[in-house]
């Protein structure tokens, strides 16, 4: 689903939901990939990430995935726990590692997460996950 669907769902489905987890994903260096290998290569990386997120959502009962920007995706997990959110992030990392072992053009993704046990403002939680993703991205650059 796209950003518009995401905004509608945030307002309708996730307002005051308990046990809401957010994973915010951002593909690293997409512009460089597009410049060096062409937009078809960048599109293939975006499809790879979307495929992995669809696979994760298919395995989880209360998960929904959205593409919210050019190279940004959000996974919302309801009726969740911190452990379940961590498991989703690890599952994503494992899937991407497996993909990267078999690909000539590997990709890396920065991931941020946020969780609320009780009722919360979902937009604020998404913002927290977004900020966590940018901290992750900065740490990856510093390595």
From TrEMBL:
<keyword id="KW-0808">Transferase</keyword>
<dbReference type="GO" id="GO:0052621">
    <property type="term" value="F:diguanylate cyclase activity"/>
</dbReference>
<dbReference type="InterPro" id="IPR050469">
    <property type="entry name" value="Diguanylate_Cyclase"/>
</dbReference>
<dbReference type="Pfam" id="PF00990">
    <property type="entry name" value="GGDEF"/>
</dbReference>
<protein>
    <submittedName>
        <fullName>Diguanylate cyclase DgcN</fullName>
        <ecNumber>2.7.7.65</ecNumber>
    </submittedName>
</protein>
<dbReference type="InterPro" id="IPR000160">
    <property type="entry name" value="GGDEF_dom"/>
</dbReference>
<feature type="domain" description="GGDEF">
    <location>
        <begin position="18"/>
        <end position="143"/>
    </location>
</feature>
<dbReference type="InterPro" id="IPR043128">
    <property type="entry name" value="Rev_trsase/Diguanyl_cyclase"/>
</dbReference>
<keyword id="KW-0548">Nucleotidyltransferase</keyword>
<dbReference type="InterPro" id="IPR029787">
    <property type="entry name" value="Nucleotide_cyclase"/>
</dbReference>
């Amino acid at each position: 689903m796209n950003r518009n669907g995401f905004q509608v769902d945030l307002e309708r489905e996730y307002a005051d939901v308990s046990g809401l987890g957010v994973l915010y994903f951002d593909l690293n260096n997409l512009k460089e990939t597009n410049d060096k290998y062409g937009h078809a290569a960048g599109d293939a990386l975006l499809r790879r990430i979307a495929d992995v997120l669809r696979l994760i959502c298919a395995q989880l009962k209360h998960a929904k995935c959205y593409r919210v920007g050019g190279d940004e995706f959000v996974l919302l997990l309801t009726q969740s726990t911190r452990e379940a959110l961590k498991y989703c992030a690890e599952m994503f990392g494992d899937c991407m590692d497996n993909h990267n072992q078999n690909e000539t053009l590997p990709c890396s993704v920065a991931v941020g997460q946020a969780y609320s046990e009780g009722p919360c403002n979902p937009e604020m939680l998404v913002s927290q996950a977004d900020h966590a993703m940018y901290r992750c991205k900065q740490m990856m650059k510093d390595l």
